Amino acid sequence: xxxxxxxxxxxxxxxxxxxxxxxxxxxxxxxxxxxxxxxxxxxxxxxxxxxxxxxxxxxxxxxxxxxxxxxxxxxxxxxxxxxxxxxxxxxxxxxxxxxxxxxxxxxxxxxxxxxxxxxxxxxxxxxxxxxxx
Length: 133
Known about the structure:
Blueprint: E1 2-4, H1 6-18, H2 21-27, E2 32-35, H3 36-43, H4 49-58, E3 63-64, H5 68-80, H6 88-100, E4 103-105, H7 109-112, E5 121-122
Parallel strand pairs: 1-2, 1-4, 2-3, 4-5
Helix pairs in contact: 1-3, 5-6
């Protein structure tokens, strides 16, 4: 299972052109999802109706709602990583991926590294650091 961060959804068309191996995993049938927080961030854009349609189709409409356990885990992650304001939303995204047992695909791997010691797995991008759109 792969969860996508907001910037990964934005980068989808560019990464598809590059033949990103992680996208190929999804094309080959591996499950993909996005948290409702990521979907919200993506929708506030700027983003076109076509980009919304493509992103939604790519994850097969698998938008995972944030529940009580996700909120509890996110608060635990946030508190354990020093309560930095910049990590509030990232903690929710990370918690959703952790609870799903998913790897998180993100351009901002450094932003999510504080959570890797707490079971967050970051998806590789062709074995390298992410390439932006």
